[in-house]
Amino acid sequence: MSFDLDGYMKERLAAVDAALDVFLPPEAQRPETLHKAMRYSVFAGGKRLRPILVMAGAEAVGGSAEQVMPTACAMELIHTYSLVHDDLPAMDNDDFRRGVPTNHKVFGEATAILAGDALLTLAFRLVADNLRQTNPSALEVLVDIADAAGHGGMVAGQVADLEAEGRSVGAETVDYIHAHKTGALIRTSLRVGARLCGATAEQVRALSVAGADLGLAFQIVDDILDVVASSEELGKTAGKDQIQQKATYPAIHGIEASRARARDLIDEADAALAALGPRAEPIRALGRFILERKA
Ligand code: GRG
């Protein structure tokens, strides 16, 4: 029988949402506006791909989803902060995200900036709590997440993305942007759950290769969807990449070659995951999901 990815994702999404509700400060707690703004963007929707990858990484090495829940939620908080800040007028200037008005449209720019800051900071608090509870010797988890989110990871990718706007850049620059802006968080999500659960160096290596492949494939598909899908389907403004003259895979390689590259990356990820055996089946299924997603 084939793996029930839909059921797996629904169950994990519900568990992540319940945990996020506990970890996030209540709206009634002072300062109420900040806490409302944090919760607004976190609970506006989202596939919860990154936390699901953290849990799948843990399971791939014999750990459990429960053991890594705070870190899984931390990755979602970092991702959500990046969306809130990316949507600001000073960056991508968007009005619509996850099917609802963007954070700054509802709460104002200052609160949106601070809500993003607070989500990022809370994420590191959650990782520290998880280490304390689960595996204090896995301190590299903290380093890994800081590196993926920071100046050599997602922030580096965002800067390169903004600098490439309206300019003609080559394939190497697009790969750099995608690997950093999107790939770093996805690759790290996949391996930190495993690290918390005592993964061997060989297992971490296999998950790192697979995670980098999934991350690049995810962004290539994101680029393709921006061209072929509608704003309603995506829950965000479609077709913006071309208007803003963004450095994307379809712009450089065309749609068909981009699709082929994404398929090759998922095949490469499957090959790397062979070392982990049947416990990595959810990750293989998530790879197919990344390839076939419509939003
Ligand atoms: C502000 C430092 C900083 C970085 C921003 C995330 C990001 C970097 C920019 C957002 C714009 C964008 C198209 C990013 C790449 C693809 C991406 C991360 C899409 C959104 O992720 P999904 O599809 O979203 O997993 P949901 O809402 O399902 O969680």
List the helices and strands and how they pair.
Elements (H helix, E strand, L loop, with lengths): L4 H19 L8 H11 L6 H12 L8 H18 L9 E2 L2 E2 L1 H5 L1 H26 L5 H10 L4 H11 L6 H26 L4 H28 L2 H4 L5 H4 L5 H5 L1 H19 L7 H12 L3
Antiparallel strand pairs: 1-2
Helix pairs in contact: 1-4, 2-6, 3-4, 3-9, 3-15, 4-6, 4-9, 6-7, 7-9, 8-9, 9-10, 10-14, 10-15, 14-15
How would you describe this structure to a colleague?
With about 300 residues, the protein is mostly helical. The protein contains 15 helices and 2 strands. It has a two-stranded antiparallel ribbon. A hairpin with a 2-residue loop joins strand 1 (about 95) and strand 2. Bound molecules: geranylgeranyl diphosphate. The site of geranylgeranyl diphosphate (GRG) has 16 residues, from helix 4, helix 8, helix 9 and helix 10.
Q: Which percent range describes the beta-strand content?
A: under 5%
> What would you call the structural class?
mainly alpha
Give the uncertain stretches in residue-range form.
Answer: none
Provide the spatial order of strands within the biggest beta sheet: 1-2
* Sheet with the most strands, sense and barrel status: 2 strands, antiparallel
Total of DSSP H or I helical runs spanning 4+ residues:
15
Q: Ends: how far apart?
A: 26 Å
Rg value: 18 Å
Percent range for helical residues?
Answer: over 70%
In terms of quaternary structure, the protein is single chain
Based on DSSP secondary structure assignment, what is the total number of beta strands? 2
Structural shape: globular
Q: What's the mean pLDDT score?
A: 96
User: What's the order of the H and E elements?
Assistant: HHHHEEHHHHHHHHHHH
Q: What ligand species are in this complex?
A: geranylgeranyl diphosphate
